[in-house]
Amino acid sequence: MRDIYTTENRKDMVFSDNLRRCNMSRIGRLPVEIPAGVEVTVAENNVVTVKGPKGTLTESLPVEMDIKVENNQVVVTRPNDLKKMKSLHGLTRTLVANMVTGVTKGYEKVLEINGVGYRAQKQGKKLILSLGYSHPVEMEDPEGLESVLDGQNKITIKGIDKQKVGQYAAEIREKRKPEPYKGKGIKYADEVIRRKVGKTGKK
What is the Cα 134 distance to its own chain's centre? Predict the structure, then answer.
């Protein structure tokens, strides 16, 4: 019975892996539309620069891929159908699309602070968090990113680089992860905290 279970699990894992690669491959074939007001250039070694209304992003993308700008589109092609190339194909196309979105619309990540006395405030580029410790936690907005407060318990991280926005939000959340009993701490606005029932004292 154990062997059958293991075999079925392996089949599921192989199927999921193949499906993921197939999806990445399909994504890679889709051209990225270049909106009006956006300029995309591809330099040596696939260094891609995207300029738009909100700023400029430069990224070194996989050199195995062929990246061309034609007819107001960015087209990514792969050299062969090896598994690695299929994955890189989809990844490269996704990164280019993220850059275009970043310089036109930008990205943001919203955090919520829960807990009595827990709050945030801004002093210039400095984010000051009161999280129940003996002293406030101070963080400075990285270059190209901005933390915006809505009241004292809601923080929105804004920027044009999707990865950096997500990273900074994760670092802020790390300062006081939400605990599972009362939900105190910092969580993403769309995050659902699985609550645990607190232990009752002995009678």
Answer: 32
State the DSSP code for 198.
P
For residue 149, what are the CA distances in angstroms to 109, 144, 192?
12, 17, 21
Contact (CB, 8 A) for 128 and 122 = yes
Residues of the chain with pLDDT under 70: 1-25, 197-203
Structure tokens at 10: 């392996």
> Please, which residues bridge with residue 39 across strands?
51
Give pLDDT, residue 180: 86
> Shortest CA distance to 102 belongs to which of 155, 54, 49?
54
Residue type at position 134: S
Residues 6 or more apart from 67 whose CB is under 8 A from it? 42, 46, 48, 61, 74, 75, 76, 92, 96
Q: Quick check: helix, strand or coil at residue 178?
A: coil
* CB of 18 closer than 8 Å to CB of 65: no
Prediction pTM value: 0.82
Q: What SS3 state is found at 61?
A: coil
d(CA 73, CA 58): 17
pLDDT of residue 9: 53
Which of 87, 104, 91 minimizes the C-alpha distance to 38? 104
User: Domains, the chain, ranges and CATH?
Assistant: 16-104 (3.90.930.12), 107-187 (3.90.930.12)
Query: Per residue in 76-104, pLDDT tens?
Result: 999 999 999 999 999 999 999 999 999 99
